[in-house]
TrEMBL record:
NCBIfam families referenced in this protein's UniProt entry, alphabetically: PRK07539.1-1
InterPro entries named in the record: NuoE-like (IPR002023), NuoE_dom (IPR042128), NuoE_N (IPR041921), Thioredoxin-like_sf (IPR036249)
Entry keyword annotation includes Iron-sulfur: yes
Annotated protein name in UniProt: NADH-quinone oxidoreductase subunit NuoE
Cofactor: [2Fe-2S] cluster
Top-rank lineage group of the source organism: Bacteria
Pfam families with a match to the protein in the record: 2Fe-2S_thioredx
Organism: Saccharopolyspora erythraea (Streptomyces erythraeus)
UniProtKB keywords: 2Fe-2S, Iron, Iron-sulfur, Metal-binding
Region of interest (Disordered), residue spans: 193-244
Family: Belongs to the complex I 24 kDa subunit family.
Gene: nuoE
Keyword Iron included in the entry's annotation: yes
Amino acid sequence: MTDMSNTSAVFGEDVRADAKQIIGRYPESRSALLPMLHLVQSVQGHVSTEGIEFCAEQLDLSTAEVSAVATFYTMYKRKPCGQHLVSVCTNTLCAALGGDSIYRTLSEHLGVGHDETAGTPGEEGSLTLEHAECLAACDLGPVLQVNYEYYDNQTPEKALELVKALQRGEKPAPTRGAPLSDFRGAERQLAGFFDRPGGSYEDTVDGPSAAEETLRGARIANERGWTAPAMPDDAELPPLPEKK
């Protein structure tokens, strides 16, 4: 049985109201676990023991069930994050294009390694650095993300300039995606809430969504009249393999 006194001290009535709103989106309450964990991170900057207990309490799950999910996905942090989370893609292509050098430059500047924080977590200018597996932007590599927003075509020099700006309290505009928030603000968006103070939904999420490099192939095909062959209406589909 979860000790509700522990979670009540951390998660107030406003957070509980948000939790009920999240749960109401799903026919089965347990399906709300992923956004609930993001809600927890928007409050605490990580998934704490109290956060796991809170999710279990709200969703009528065991803490073991919640922990199994929270420890499976890398987006759920078990240690307090900085004001900003800097994720450097070091998968094969980005690494070959300079991702390893970018990570090394930032690590040396910040004096931290993977999943470590420079500064006091949550305070302005604090940064958590991490290696990231493929960020699905190979046409724009090497790339990094800040709070899951993209900064494309990076170099060690550009990445270092970006990080220094974040440390000064600035929020440089991402190459693509929404205006930069902080880590907790991004987590609130991932929980499904777009209520940036003084702004509308469009102010919170609007931004460039595609880069010139991504669109170039489609534009050339359109200019030259290239099209893919149409699928015949009577195309014969391959037989399904027999079940054994």
